[in-house]
Protein: Mitochondrial Rho GTPase
Amino acid sequence: MAAVRICVCGDDGVGKSAIITSLVKDVFITVKIPPVLPQVTLPPTLGTPDNVTTTIVDTSALPHERHILRKELRKSNVILLVYSDHYSYERVALFWLPYFRSLGVNVPVVLCANKSELASNGTTSQVVAEEMLPVMNEFKEIDSCIRTSAKEHHNINEVFFLCQKAVTHPIAPLYDSKENALKPAAVSALQRVFHLCDKDKDGYWNDEEINDFQIKCFEKPLGDDDLPNIKRSIERFVPGCAGEHGMDEKGFLLLNKIFAEKGRHETIWIILRKFHYTDSLSLRDTFLHPKFDVPQYSSAELSPAGYRFFVDLFIKFDKDNDGGLNDKELTNLFAPTPGIPSSWIDSAFPSCTVRNEAGNITLQGWLAQWSMTTFEEPKTTLEYLAYLGFESTDRGGTTNALKVTKARKRRNRPGRVERNVFLCYVLGASGSGKSAMLSAFLQRPFLQTYHPTIKPRSAVNSVELKGGKQCYLILEELGELEPAILENRAKLDACDLLCYTYDSSDPDSFAHIVELRKKYPHLDHLPAVYTALKADQDKTMQRCELQPDEFTSALNMAAPLHVSTTWSSISELFVHLAESATYPSTAFPKQDEEPYDNMNLYLALGAVACAAVSVVFIWKRNSSAPS
Ligand SMILES: Nc1nc2c(ncn2[C@@H]2O[C@H](COP(=O)(O)OP(=O)(O)OP(=O)(O)O)[C@@H](O)[C@H]2O)c(=O)[nH]1
Ligand SMILES: Nc1nc2c(ncn2[C@@H]2O[C@H](COP(=O)(O)OP(=O)(O)OP(=O)(O)O)[C@@H](O)[C@H]2O)c(=O)[nH]1
Ligand SMILES: [Ca+2]
Ligand SMILES: [Ca+2]
Structure:
């Protein structure tokens, strides 16, 4: 909250200047004071809400000062409207409030009945019933009303406190006094708060959950009597909302409604602000979109804290414990968010990752999906961490769930790339079996039917490297965007590995790879693995100048690996791809002076393979029976 700027207005002689002097000087000045006081700025003191600085602006009601009044009203964020007798009271509804509306200023108004010590002004209960309530009912912009006496210094500090509170803790966004109800935006924010604090997701706040909430929002635990008292008052209004299971959502909303009705809406604001809501009841932008930069050649990944959060979330929402999130469970999980991320919808979630037989995303798939999202658009992950209630005691909030990988510079230098999530483009002739390979990667059964891929399509899964380390691999086939993506430097920089595929049973398949490499020479700067698909079918000669083995051998590259998606040994291809992405120098042309690197079994095979047949043979022998 920046500052409170109070514009004091009202008919002449009502005591505007006297109220301000009474506050500043603590005395009632009977000597002639200037009709309009210079503006006063007060620093925050003990008890100032939200530690705001307050500026008080005196005005004049005289017609020739109107332009100044108008300017000041537009600059203010609260109006203190003063009257002091019957005539100036009538003018409140007849002139002043309609005038503010006509100027389009939409700020709270604190209505002040000054000169309260004068007997002719009546008793407080009369003033409240006959003057204040009727005008409050008519004008919803009136935040509060108060009686003051500048002469007796009565309620002077209080009237300014009300003005400050009207700015720092406005009632208008929360409560509709005409409807006697919390406003819809406040209701949905509070529902989200309820949802996030219902840790065990049973639909109730048990005593422990209530206490945690209390400590989070008010930084002190509830007293012994508080809990039963709160429950009793809720039960009185709506029986059944605070029963043996605890307090349900309805009970929580009711409690907040009671706060609003009792003028304790400050409490609601404390709750909502703790949960990062702004005055307009949206989540703070810096909370949803914290600063997080990924430098060139680096990537974003989930940190251990981030993975832990998504694991916990999955387990919490897998209510039926079947190891998958069904539609209902997913809807519940995403309830505190605007819904499933739009990029997930575009990629036909959850078909791009691991699902169980029922078609529901598994924990493995869930983590793979978030690994891919974080890699491709870390901003989305950060946004959803905020929506889903990721909490961190460290500074930095949701960014603690992410990390930036070490910049990957020269790829053809031997060594490991410090990443756990890798992107691999699968490039090859249409019909060569790329989609089938992606499906096999997700352990989907092999399908005979052929559906050409038009939109780019990804598959993400975890892969266990030799030695037991786990990483995530994103395989992407580019569909008709292949040319556009291969021309895009940034896209290629982001990619960790190319997987060239061809159909070894189709004589016209390998030519596509030859063409691609001719057309986009900079593909040479990327590590690559050559793969001959459909090894279950008869191999034919390729109609090209060089056969695939000769081609790769001329490049000093490993010979193509022959695999079939109909064999379960295909999983070894994925390990090989992940290994090649981790140690990219192994997927570049071998340099003569480089000592032979025995790290990779398949490359070792490739190096000795003068005849592809032997490779096929070994792959067959390694594989279990064709399925
Ligand atoms: N009895 C009584 N008189 C007051 C009170 N407050 C202000 N007055 C008197 O009312 C008269 C007008 O007070 P101002 O403070 O000048 O009123 P104002 O609203 O600033 O008037 P303009 O500057 O003309 O717009 C002065 O004679 C004050 O002494 C009060 O609480 N009680
Ligand atoms: N026998 C056999 N058939 C396969 C194998 N892999 C894919 N196929 C079949 O080959 C056809 C084409 O496979 P896709 O995976 O759609 O080929 P694609 O490369 O994605 O094709 P585009 O999307 O057009 O670029 C389909 O009918 C598959 O069933 C395999 O390993 N063995
Ligand atoms: Ca609960
Ligand atoms: Ca395809």
Summary: The first helix runs from residue 16 to 25. The chain has four domains: 3-168, 181-282, 287-404, 423-622. The chain has 24 helices and 21 strands. Residues 593-627 have pLDDT under 50 and may be disordered.
